[in-house]
Structures are given as structure tokens and as C-alpha cells.
Amino acid sequence: MSSLYAALEERLSRAFDAVSPGADPVLRPSEHADFQANGALGLAKVLGQSPREVAQRVIDVLDIADLARVEIAGPGFINVVVSVDEMSQRLVDLLSNERLGVERRSARRVVIDYSAPNVAKEMHVGHLRSTVIGDSLARLHRFLGDEVIARNHVGDWGTPFGMLIEHLLDLGEAEAVASLSVGDLDSFYRAARAKFDADETFRERSRARVVSLQSGDEETRRLWQILVDQSVAYFSEVYEALDVELTAADVVGESAYNDDLESVLHDLAAKDLLVESEGAQCVFPPGFVGRDGEPQPLIVRKSDDGFGYAATDLAAVRDRVGRLGADEIYYVVGSPQSQHFQMVFSVARLAGWLPEWVHCEHVAFGSVLGPDRKMFKSRTGETVKLIALLDDATEAARREVTARRPEIGVEEAESLARDVARAAIKYADLSTDRLRDYVFDLDRMISAEGDTGPYLQYAHARIRALFRRAGIERAPHVTPLLHEPSERALALGLLGWPDAVEATVRTSQPHRLCSYLFDVAQRFSTFYEECPVLNAPEGVRESRLALAELTARTLAQGLALLGIAAPEQM
Fold first, then answer.
1. Which has the closest alpha carbon to 454: 503, 518, 501?
2. How far is CA 352 from CA 283, 298, 340, 355, in A?
3. Distance from first CA to last CA of the chain, Å, rounded?
């Protein structure tokens, strides 16, 4: 069954098309009706009639009586008022559907590239957006039935590894592993960098070690693998703390494509795409120019014969389409990399590695800012670590939880504090249009009031408390009566769930789902204030409990797709 909105839109589109082929009305919610179709005003000029005459022609051919009644409003708008019987029946259908009306689509193989921290460096606030946006998109695509292949493209290759391996040897393997195993990656890296900057002998050893690493020396590769394994173990701990569904098996770093780089260069040359420019091997995809107006190159091999990020990214595209068979590829990477990815996609299409039927998208996002609206830093001016961020949020949540429920046990308080902290951090990020920057304000984020994750958790818990007071776990399956305006408004909101999920996936914009959930929670709050539930007459009580049940399930399912828990009690 199609969603209510989709059914209305389809029938209105057919009617407009019958009046003027190609016409496409805009259907949106209205203060004066359930929905309002705008399109007659534009057609009036084309057809040489008044907007109200055009609207009447549309209504005359509109087959919608089984769903709604329509009327002409104002200069030529078409107001749509859905019948109570139709809404009630659709609500009954949703109550009996574990997916609340969201149909599984034909499974597509979807590769999502996200998080991407660097080996031997701790994850910080700069990794937050890629990690939580990518995780939510992965959950959404899996929910729709897609086969999701997560790719954590960690930085595990390059010249810094020479100094890191030499520092590991200086410390001794056992001591180095002990240091790295407790997650103190930054100290290890800083010590190696300090030695590299101060000691010429160490610099020479480091450079020689890079050569050994790149040439495949067995012992050097073993030492390098220690750094990678310890870092990946640390990353996994961060993901578990954040409740992010990335695993060690999803790590496919830069090094995984090393053996493919020469063949990438060879294939580009064979297709006459390579051009030598200032000693570098480049491709000049059409449509890209620099500030001086000159064609912009994508450098595949640098003048020193080393391969850069572009070569690795091209090899990754070729692998994801050719070997993995991806139908869709998403790169959840910050906005500053937009041109780089557009050029990579363009070159990959020129080379034939990225067919037109494969959807490839850069899911760009803005930055996390501090209260001064500059890049978020600690009080000492350092980049804020993700674990420290989560610890601060958990401590704030713990205070909130124990203040509200002083009788709560220690284990339950700790579990709830973690859930609330994750909700605060994730929702603040996901509820912001991802292309915009946002200010990290923990006091606002952790609050159970306003457009926050804890508010939505509280809304869900409030409904579950209602059922505990009623002495039942779930509502009876009855047909909602929808006598009151706030009941109707809540019903319309709940029926919009499939469209909210579809729009979120189609645009890769999690804030759309956040906005929908917040709207549903607000509609329920109004309903709860205006419509007694437990004290309502027999029949009405069951109807309102059914609406409450559907609201709780919608909130829980929506929060789960954002990677946020929905506690039964707050």
C-alpha cells in the first residue's frame, strides 16, 4: 500500500496532467486543510484561464473521492481534506505492520565510506559528523532492504609511518604495545614527531624505514601491522562507546589499494587520459578550472613518483564497482573535499570505471564549532577527543538522571546516562542540515526540552509510562475514532512516517527524519494535553491508547535509524 501522501500526490498529478500534459502540482501541508495543491496559478497563464477555472477543471477529472474531499480556496488553490474513515483504516494497517508501512524496496548493493580516522592518532571531534551521519545512512539503507557494505577508509599509509615504526623500535615492542593498547595514540605520535623534528639521525632512519615499508620488507610490514591493529582496536572501542555499527572488519584503509595504483595509472594512460604537467601525471576532467581560469588537473602521480589521494580514491572507486558490484556509493566526507570528489567521480566515469547507472555521491557536511563560532577546541586550545566529548556528555546526563530519579540504581543510572549522552550528541549533529556548521552546546543538547535527542527519548518514555499506568503493555488493535482536531493532527503526522523515511534516504539528509520525529512528538504533546486518555469513556480510551501506541513505535523506530536508543523509562 502506498503512503497517504504518495497516493494523494499521484492522483493529483494525474488530474493536472489531464488538464495540461506535463503539469506537476506542489502538494504541501496547509493551515486550512490537511494538504494544499498549488499549480493552478501557474497553469492559468499557459491556458489563458483564471486560476479558479483551472482548479475547477482539475477537480472535475480528479479521482479522489475514496480518499478525501477537495475544494477550491483563495485565488485557485486546491484544499484536500482526508476522510476520517481513510485515515482510521490506514492507522489500523500501520498498527498491524511492524515496519509501520515502510515497504522494503528491491535490494541494492550500497557502499558507504565514512568515519576514516588516521592510524596512530586518536579520534576527535572532527570525526564526529562523518561517523554519525554515515552510521545513520547505513541503518536507513539496511532498513529499506539494501545490502550495505561499510568502508572505513582509515589513513594507514604514507611517510609518517617511517618515524612511527622507528619510535616503536626505540621504545621496545612490548612497551609500545602497552602504550598504544590503552588508547594513548596521540602521545605516541607526538613523541615520534618531536624526535623526528629534533634528531637528524632519527630522521634518516625514518626515511629509510619508509622505503622499506613501501618496498614490502617483511619485518617492517610486521611492525607497521602492530600500529594498525592497535589503532583499529582503539577505534572499535570508540565506536562501541558511541553505539556506531562500524567494526574492525569494515576497515579497508589506504594501504589496501597500494597494489592497484600502478594499474590505475596504466589504465588511464591506455585510454589517453593522462597528461604530464610539471613532471606530474594528471587527468584534466572537463569543467574544472582553477582561480586563474586554467583547467584544473587531478594529480594521479606526483612529480616525485609518489601516488597521492586521488590515485587511491580512483582505485577504490574501481574496486567498489568492479569487484564489489556497488549500485550506489556514498562518501561521507567534509565539504572542503567537494571538488576533489567531483573530479575523482568525473575521471572515474571518463575511464569507464563508474558507469552512469551507478549512483555515486559525496555526502558533504559542515563543521562542529565552539561557542565562539570557531572550530571546536578544548580550553587548552587542543582538538577535543571523541571519548572526552562522550564522557562529558555522560557525566552531564548522569546528573540529570539522578536528579530526576534519585531512587534509581547505579547500574540503571549508568546505562540510562550513556543512552541520553549518545542521544544528545548524535541528535544535535543529525538534526542540523548537514551542509551547515553548528555550535556544540552541551547544556542545550542534553536538555529534555526543545528539539533535542533527550526530548524525543522522554516523549517515548512518557508514552510507555502511560501504558504502565493503564496496566497493559501494548494498546488493543482498534480503529482510531479521530473525533478531536488534535487526534486528527496526530494521525496525519503518524501517516507521514513512510514519506519521511523515503525523503531522508533519497536526499541523504538525516535532519529530515529528525524534523519529522520532533513534529510527531509535538503533535502527541498537544494531543495528550487536549485529549484525556486513561479517563476517557470506553471506546474512546482504547482509540487514544492506539494512537499513543503508534506514536511510541514511530518514535522508537525513528530513533533507532538515527542510532539512538529509546528507553522505556527516563
1. 518
2. 14, 16, 18, 6
3. 36
Which cell numbers in the block locate residue 8? Answer: 494523494
Question: Which CATH number does 84-103+377-570 carry?
Answer: 1.10.730.10
For residue range 233-257, list pLDDT tens digits in order: 999 999 999 999 999 999 999 999 9
Where are the domains positioned within the chain? 4-82, 84-103+377-570, 160-246
Cα Dmax for the chain: 87
Say which amino acid occupies 33: A
Assigned C-alpha cell, 29: 501541508
> Is the pLDDT assigned to residue 413 strictly greater than 80?
yes
User: Which H or E run includes 70?
Assistant: strand 68-73
Cell of 378: 578544548
Residue 380 has pLDDT above 80, yes or no: no
Q: Number of C-alpha atoms within 13 angstroms, CB side, residue 151?
A: 26
Burial environment of residue 281 by CB neighbours within 10 A (0 to 12, 13 to 18, 19 or more): buried
- The yes-or-no verdict on residue 521 having pLDDT over 70 is yes
CATH node for 4-82: 3.30.1360.70
Q: Report pLDDT digits (tens) over 35-52.
A: 999 888 888 888 899 999
Rg, the chain, Cα only: 28
